[in-house]
Amino acid sequence: MAKLKWDHLVHYVNNLDKPVELFEEHGLAAFKGGAHKAWGTYNTLSYFGLTYIEFLGIENLELAKATEHNVVVRDAVKALPEHEILSRVVLRTDDIEEVAASLKLAGLSLSPIIDGRRLDHEGRLIEWRMLTIDGDFQGLVYPFIIQWSGNDEERLERLSASGVIRPHPSGHAEIVNAVFRVSNPAAAAEHWGELFQLPVIKSHSGSATLKIGDKSFDFVQGDENQFKQVIIETDSTKLQGKTLRIGEGEYIFV
């Protein structure tokens, strides 16, 4: 299967301004992304290199309710407004057809490959291809898969030149870990590892870790079966040791 990288994460929120304000108060760059007009959702973004945070809200509830195939939007309708949760991680590929074929062979129920598009805050059209995975493993929802146009080097150069990827005023910061609280960490890590061809680098009775590039997914003991925390490495002494809480999600700076 084509190699996968951690592209971004999705965090459902009711008010897109609040995470921007909180991040800016702590010297972190965040900004309005744009609207997914066909799905009734919109977002704000914060980039840490090519890996970024997407705060996703519902702009048009009727459109969101009517959206077919896109489980990310369907789950947003179910979760909001009561639960502002970390939804899922998103994996990037350069061959989405190959990934789809591999996941189908594994017996998963997939959406069709969807052509996604939105207008950014300056009216520029952003396009991608994606597929979502229905269901869950022991209650933990699956990532979705995305493919952008161009390779990583081209995208990094383009997004930096346009100001989408920008320095954080507080200093260097990099997303390094996603933490999932699950009832059976070893089984969840093994299952995801087999599906997405990610190595298990450590496994203990109460935790297990998957390596994805220079980052990792940590599965720890808990009853929630949910994505709960994002670990961000920083050289900012003002941020180190802080935890920013947005709804039910936590951003921990180390």
Automatic annotation (TrEMBL):
Q: Which Pfam families match?
A: Glyoxalase_3
Kindly give the SUPFAM superfamilies that the UniProt entry links to this protein: Glyoxalase/Bleomycin resistance protein/Dihydroxybiphenyl dioxygenase
Recorded coiled-coil stretches: none
The molecule here is called: Glyoxalase-like domain-containing protein
Tell me the organism's taxonomic lineage: Bacteria, Bacillati, Bacillota, Bacilli, Bacillales
Occurrences of domain Glyoxalase-like (ranges): 6-195
